[in-house]
Design goal:
Glutaredoxin, four-stranded mixed β-sheet, 6 helices, globular
């Protein structure tokens, strides 16, 4: 019995550690500071996380995959700019997200923008076809990283 409880406890701790490694920030300026200090790219996901089918598919199929998270850990600072319909957000976060969407001319969800460590936009993709694999997504990010 003790070994089962210990095993469950260890599994929980490991899953929490993995989640912390793949933590999504919500403050783009802070993320850009972190990226500059760590010499990483910034991946910003403008999403409707609780209502947008392509957004949900992108997260399920790619952004939460082991392949993507493994790459992100060493190469990306992740930012989620969310526009939910049923999740609550502070008024400050809503305003910040709206301002960022206007600044970056977001016209559809999901929109993923990748910046280099200096804040230069490297890529802007709108939508998700449901067919792109984590491996293909990571390959594209590696190509951007080299440019």
């Amino acid at each position: 019995m003790k070994s089962v409880v210990l095993g469950l406890l260890l599994a929980f701790v490991a899953s929490q550690a993995m989640a912390a490694e793949g933590q999504w920030l919500t403050d783009l300026p802070k993320a850009q500071e972190k990226a500059k200090a760590e010499k990483k790219m910034v991946l910003v996901d403008f999403t409707g996380s609780d209502w947008c089918p392509p957004c949900k598919a992108l997260h399920k199929n790619v952004l939460s995959s082991e392949e993507f998270m493994k790459y992100a850990k060493d190469n990306l600072v992740l930012v989620e700019i969310d526009f939910p319909r049923s999740k609550s957000q502070s008024a400050e976060l809503k305003k910040s997200n709206k301002d960022l969407a206007q600044k970056h001319k977001i016209e559809g969800y999901p929109t993923v923008i990748v910046f280099d460590s200096t804040g230069k936009e490297l890529s802007k993709d709108v939508g998700y076809d449901g067919k792109t694999t984590p491996e293909q997504y990571v390959a594209k990010l590696k190509k951007l990283q080299k440019s």
